[in-house]
# Entry
Amino acid sequence: MIKFYQYPNCTTCKKAAKFLQDYGVSFEPIDIVQHTPTKNEFKEILEATDIDINKLFNTHGAKYRELGLKDKMNDLTDDEKLDLLSTNG
# Structure
């Protein structure tokens, strides 16, 4: 079974969950706001998936805009990005 971190009201998350269900993939839905992964959990996710850390950021989210991350992402280290992700999924 895989862990499926999601925003429950996100339409993209709902589509992804439906895709997993349609293909019989067993998953545990986890509300990322209520249960934000720790820094180490994010590290494990990155190592297991080989995904670019920047893909984990909600670039349309209010917090992303509020922190001005669009202009800062290239200057942040991966460690700093992990700190941001683990404090606000």
Notes: The chain has a mean pLDDT of 93. The CA atoms of residues 3 and 24 lie 14 Å apart. The two ends are 21 Å apart (CA to CA).
